[in-house]
Amino acid sequence: MNDRMPLAAEPTAPHVQDVQASVRALFDRHVMPTYARFDLVLSHGAGSEVWDVQGRRFLDLGGGIAVCALGHAHPEVAETLARQARRLLHVSNLYYHEPQGRLAEEISRHLDAPGKVFFANSGAEANEGMYKLARKFGHAHPGADGPRYEVITTVNSFHGRTLGGIAATGQEKVKAGFDPLPEGFRCDVPFNDLAAMEAAVGSRTAAILIEGIQGEGGITPASADYLTGLRRLCDERNLLLLVDAVQCGHFRSGCFQSFQRVLGDALGPAAASAFTPDGVSMAKSLGGGFPIGAFWARRTVADLLGPGSHGTTYGGSPLGCAVALKIFEIIERDHLADHVRQTGAWLHAEIAALAREFPGVVRSARGLGFMLGIELAPASEIKGFAARAGERAASLQFVDRLHEAGVLTIPSGTQIARLLPALNLPRSQAEEGMDRIRRVVRALA
Ligand SMILES: *Cc1c(COP(=O)(O)O)cnc(C)c1O
Questions:
Q1: Which fold has domain 13-61+336-444?
Q2: Cα of 280 to ligand 1 centre, how many Å?
C-alpha cells in the first residue's frame, strides 16, 4: 500500500470537507435521487486505486460494477480514445466504418461460432435487442395458437431498468410502481431448475433468457447440467436460448463467457465448445468504462432483424468500437483470462477461509473468477452490527466498514458484498484487499 496516502478514516483539512459537502449539495439540488449513494466523492484513479476529493486512497475491488475491465485511467485505453477521437468520433449507422466490423468479428471469434452482432450503448439496450429478436423469431415460427412472443426469465434475475428490462427482471423491487408493464415476459421460474423451466414453456413461448451467473441476485452461476439441459429443451421446443452476459461476460469468469468456463470445468473443452446459445448480450466490461453494449445472435437467426427493424443513433460508434477492440487486445496480450482464473481462485479460497474462521460474520464464498461474493450472516446476528441491527442490511453495513478500511466493493441484496475487480488487478493488490477485508471481518466477530 502507498504509505504517503492517509488511511480512509483519518481526519482531513476543513476545506476538503467543504468540497465533499458542496458536491453532495449539488446532487441534492440538481440530480434525481434514483440511487442510494454512499457518502464518497471520488476524484481520480489509476489501475485499481481510486482517490476521493479528500485525498483518501481506496482499493477498488468493485470495478465500477464489473465495468472497469482494465481499471482506471489505463494509458493505452486513454491513448486509443484520444487518437480515435481525433480521427472519427461518430458517424451515423447509415454508413460503414472499419472499427464496428472488426469488433463484431472479434466477438464472434471469441464465441467460437458463426453469428452477427448488433451494437447498442448499454446492457438494458442490448437485452432489448434480444427481446425484439425473440419476437421476430416467434412471429417467423408461430405455435399452434398463433405467433409466439413470450420470453421466460428466472427468479432473482436482473436484466436492466428500461420498461422491457424490469418486465424481464425476476425481482419485484424493480417493478414496484411502474405497472402496467409490457406483456410477454414470465419471470417466476426458479434459476438452475430445469424441470421448472420445462414445465413453464407454453405454446406462446419464444425464448428463454438467463444470466450466465446471476449478478444482482447474489452471484449464482448456472450449473453445467442446467446449461446443457436448457440447450436441449430449446432445441426440442424450437426456442431461442438467450444469455445475458452483461455482468458475467468478457473474461470475468476466466473465460470470455461464463458458460464456457462452467462447461469447460465440469465437462471438458469439447463440451464447452459444443454449446452455443442463440443470443448473448454484453456491455459493462466490453467498453471498460466507455458506454457500449452489444448482442450477438447465432447465424441461424442473425438476419431476422432486417433493414429498418431495429436501430440506435450511437450504437457501435468508431470511438466505442476502437476502445473495445483495444481492451480485447490487451486482455489477450497480457493473458488476463489466466490471471483472473488464478487470482480469482486464490480470492475465493481466502473468502472460504474467512467463512471457516469467522462463521458468525461470513457464511460462504460465492462465484468464480473475478465475480465473487462474500455471503454474510444476517445483520442481527453479526456482533459488530448489533447496535445498528435492523436498520441497514448486512451487505450495506459491511460495505460501509470496508470503505472505512479503504476498500470499495458492491453490495448485492441484503447479505452479499460483491468483488468485481478489474481483470488486471495485480496479485499484490488482491492480497492487500483481502488483508483489509480480513481485518474488518475480525473486528466484527
Ligand atoms: C448491469 C446489468 C444490466 C443492465 O445494464 P445497463 O448498462 O445498466 O443497462 C443487465 N443485465 C445484467 C446481468 C446486468 O448486470
A1: Aspartate Aminotransferase, domain 1 (3.90.1150)
A2: 13
